[in-house]
Amino acid sequence: MCLVVRLFAVAALGMATVFTIQHASAQYRASVGCSAEKIDSLSEAASLEELECKCFNRCPQPSPLPTPSPANVFGCEKGKLIAWLDNHGVYGGQLDPSIYDDQVDWIVGGKLSTKKRSEIAKEEEDFRKVYPVQSYITKSSSAAVVGGQCVLTQRLDVHKQRSNGKEVFGTFRIVFGIRTNVDPPRIVQQYIDVLSGR
Amino acid sequence: MSITSERRQFIKALLICGCTVCLLPPERAKAQGRSYCGASSSRAALKDLVPLQSYSNPAISVYVSREDDYLAAFFGTRAGIYIDESDPNAYMDYDRNLIAVGGRYLKRYAPQPFGLLKISGILAHEESHIFQIKWKINSMLEDVRGHEIKFVELHADYLAGAYMAWRQSYRGVDPAEISALFFELGDNSVGTISHHGTPQERFLTFQSGYREFLGARQKDPSADVITAATLGLKFLGSMMKSWG
3-state DSSP call for residue B190? Predict the structure, then answer.
C-alpha cells in the first residue's frame, strides 16, 4: 500500500514537473515572440531562414534584379537607336537577326507570342519572298527608358510591293524594347500595331 | 503479435534484464569504460555549457524548446537541453540529466534545407538514450556480439525513427531526408569501442523504426514509446546475426 502511494506521489510529481517546464518553455517562446503554432506550421524542409522569417519577421529580401543602365552602350537616344536599327536592315533592308535576343516578346495587334531569333529570321525571309520591295518612312519617333529598358516608339508609313507588282500602303506603330546595357544591344520586345492600310 | 503482448514481452525483457546486469548503476557502467553518445566523463563541465534559453540564436532556441515539448510527450522523459559550442555532434549525460547539442552541429545544419528537421532528429536520438537508461535497455544491448555500444546506438536510432513517425501527426516530417541524416551519422570504424553502426545499418534502423511504428499506430492508435522500444528490440534481434 505504502509502495502504491509512493509510486503515485512520484508520478504526480513527475507530471507536475513536466507541466511546469512546459509552461516555462511556452513562456520563453512567448517572450521572444515565437509561438508554438508558428513553429509547428514550418514546412518539413524548413531551414533557419524560414524559421527566422516566421518567428521574427526577418525574411530574406528578394535579391534585387540588376537594374540595367541603358546608357551603357549608346544610351537611349532615338537618333542612335534608329541608326543602329537601320544599319541592321530593320527598315526594309537585309535584316540582321543578330540584333534580336534569343527570345523576343512579339506582340501584333495586342496578341502576345514569344519568338526565337531563328523564327524571326525565317519569317523575315518568307516575308521578303512575298514582298521583295519594301520601304519605310518614319513619321514620328520617341525613345524613353521604361522599366530599365530602352523603348523606341515609331510611327511608320510603309510601302510594300508583291512580286506580281501589287502594291500595299499602310501606317503602323512599332515599338521596340531594347536592352542597351549589353554589348551589342538586343531587341527583346517588338510591338506592332497596324493603324491603317490599303 | 498484438500490442498488448508486445508490451508484456517488453516488461518481461526488462525484468529479466533487471535480474542480471541491468541493475548496474550508471557510475559502474562508466567505470567499465562503456559510453555512447557521450555518457562519458570527458564532456564539458556544466559551466561551459550554454543553457538553451541563453543561446545566441533565439530562433534556434525556440525551435529546440518546442521540439523538447514533443520529445517529453513521446518519451516521457525530459532532459535539460544545453549547447556545447565546441562540439560538432550531440551527446547526453544521464547523470546530469542533460542533452548537449553541438554549436558546430547547429551551425552546420540550421541553414540547410531540412536542417531544422535534422536538428530534431539528433535530439530524438539523444532523448532515446535517456529513455533507454531510464528503462535500463542500454545495459541489455551493451557488449552484444562483441560490440560495446553499437546496438545501444542502433536502438536509439530506431526509437528516433518511431518518434518521427509519431511526431508527423503534429508537424511535418520528411522521412527520406531525416533517414539521410542517420546515413551520414554512420561510421565504418567497425571493431572500435565507439562504433555506432555503419551508414547502411543506421539508415535502415531509423527507417524501420519510422515504418514499423507507423504500422503499429495504424493498428492501435495508443501505441507509444514502450511499443516502439519493444519493436526496436525485436528488429535488432532479427538483424543481429547479419550485423554482428
Answer: coil
Q: Tell me: ipTM over 0.90.
A: no
Residue of A nearest to B115 (CA): A47
Does A43 contact chain B (CB < 8 Å)? yes
What is the domain partition of chain A in residue ranges? 2-56, 78-197
Q: Which CATH entry fits the domain spanning A78-197: 3.10.450.50, 3.30.70.260, 3.40.50.2300, 3.20.20.70?
A: 3.10.450.50
d(CA B50, CA B100): 9
3-state helix, strand, coil in chain A (%, to 5): 35, 35, 30
What is the spatial distance between Cα B200 and Cα A197, in angstroms, rounded to a whole number?
Answer: 75
Q: What are phi and psi of A116, to 5 degrees?
A: -85, 160
Question: Shortest CA distance to B151 belongs to which of B32, B232, B31?
Answer: B232
- Contact status of A183 with chain B (Cβ, < 8 Å): no
Give the nearest chain B residue to A36 (CA atoms): B66
The answer to whether the CB of A109 falls within 8 A of the CB of A194 is yes
Taking the Cβ of residue A53 and every Cβ of chain B, the question of whether any pair is shorter than 8 Å is answered with: no
Q: Which of A17, A36, A51 sits opposite B59 (nearest CB)?
A: A51
Instruction: Tell me the residue type at B127.
Output: E
pLDDT in tens, chain A (198 residues): 454 555 455 455 555 555 555 667 778 887 777 888 889 988 888 999 999 998 888 887 766 655 544 445 567 888 888 888 888 888 888 888 899 998 898 888 777 888 999 999 898 888 888 888 888 888 888 888 877 788 888 988 888 888 888 888 888 889 899 988 787 889 998 988 888 877
Say whether B69 and A45 touch across the interface (CB within 8 A).
Answer: no
Q: Is A107 exposed, middle or buried (0-12, 13-18, 19+ CB in 10 A)?
A: middle
Give how far B179 is from chain A: nearest CA, Å.
13
How far is Cα A150 from Cα A148, in angstroms, rounded to an integer?
Answer: 7
Q: Name every chain B residue with its beta carbon within 8 A of the beta carbon of A30.
A: none
Whether A10 contacts A2, CB under 8 Å: no
Q: How many CA atoms lie within 13 A of A166 on its CB side?
A: 4
From B238, B158, B150, select the one nearest B187 (Cα to Cα): B150
Judging by DSSP bridges, how do beta strands B50-51 and A186-197 pair with one another? unpaired
